[in-house]
Amino acid sequence: MTGTLFIVATPIGNLDDITFRAVEVIKSVDIILAEDTRHSKKLLLHLDISKSISAFHEHNEREKTQAIIGELKSGKSIALISDAGTPLISDPGYFLVVQAKKEGLRVIPIPGPSALITALSASGLASDSFTFLGFLPSKKTARLKLLNSLVSRTETIIFYESPKRILATLSDMYITFGDDREVCLAKELTKTFETIHTDSIPNLIKYLTTDQNHQKGEFVILISANDKIDIVEAETQLDSLLPILCAEMGASKAAKIAAKITGIDKKQCYKRAINL
Ligand code: SAM
Q1: Which of 59, 135, 136, 219 should be mutated for ligand 1, with most atoms under 8 A from CB?
Q2: Cβ of residue 114 lying under 6 Å from some atom of ligand 1
Q3: Residue 159 CA to its chain's centroid (Å)
Q4: Does the Cβ of 251 fall within 6 Å of ligand 1?
Q5: Rounded to an integer, what distance in angstroms lies between the CA atom of residue 144 and that of residue 11?
Q6: Is the CB of 186 under 6 A from ligand 1?
Q7: How many angstroms separate the alpha carbon of residue 254 from the centre of ligand 1?
């Protein structure tokens, strides 16, 4: 019998945010893998579990994976935990999970907290459709380039940010998104200084700069969806699209498709199509 690899979610701050199942798995496995063994020892102490923990982090994930696969093949059960939240979500474990699945080993997720879902659930921003991008690039040029590519997205955008860059990132967001977008800063979730602020970007910059303490802690940033179509961009798109569509089909059908693609009213598209 081969062993099982459990991917166990642990708290993102408040140590009581752990499921009964997660505790049972941590208690029962042969090996616990954790990013920072000292950090995870505090969780185990809180849970009254005394067990040794083996280090598994981004710098040793690749070299340790083969040995871990060997342990699983020999029947050992293993729990992977990270410093906070769900492993693999901006945390180590992806390489290990891929290799374990390639070997036909059982990988069982034990669900629990993740900062992005926790933040989204209380942000007041649209939760029906969203994109999570992990950490933004630390270099300004790359960060601005990425932010620019997100301007016309029609779903909530979520990313993680460190306190070191929170102000620089908000400033870049102001350059890119201007002042009419709602943004949520979800800070220190589940901890004593939890703050969930949804406001315009200039107001959030004001909030961060009025008190240096406001820049401390762990952040999730959420940007509201673009609910307005860029009419100039849509018109340009319509100009190039309509002649192509009209060459292939009647004006009515072409107008219907063009309206769907550009977001411009169907009647307006039809008028343009018959006057080509
Ligand atoms: N695996 C974690 C998860 O499931 O959310 C994320 C780990 S990632 C290395 C750490 C980042 O997650 C932090 O820099 C911060 O952006 C975000 N984060 C983690 N805990 C948080 C908390 N309590 N409040 C706000 N953001 C948090």
Answers
A1: 219
A2: yes
A3: 5
A4: no
A5: 32
A6: yes
A7: 47
Tens-place pLDDT, residues 65-83: 999 999 999 999 999 999 9
pLDDT tens per residue across span 28-40: 999 999 999 999 9
pLDDT at 131 over 90: yes
- In whole angstroms, give the CA distance from residue 62 to residue 76: 19
Tally Cβ neighbours within 10 Å of residue 210. 9
Q: What pTM was estimated for this model as a whole?
A: 0.84
Find out whether the beta carbon of 189 lies less than 6 Å from any atom of ligand 1. yes
Residue 20 contacts by C-beta under 8 Å, 6 or more apart in sequence?
A: none
- 84 Cβ closer than 6 Å to some ligand 1 atom: yes
Contact residues for 146 (Cβ-Cβ < 8 A; gap 6+): 133, 136, 137
Biggest CA-to-CA distance, the chain:
78
Instruction: Please report, as a single letter, which amino acid is at residue 217.
Output: G
Please work out whether the CB of residue 161 comes within 6 Å of at least one atom of ligand 1: yes
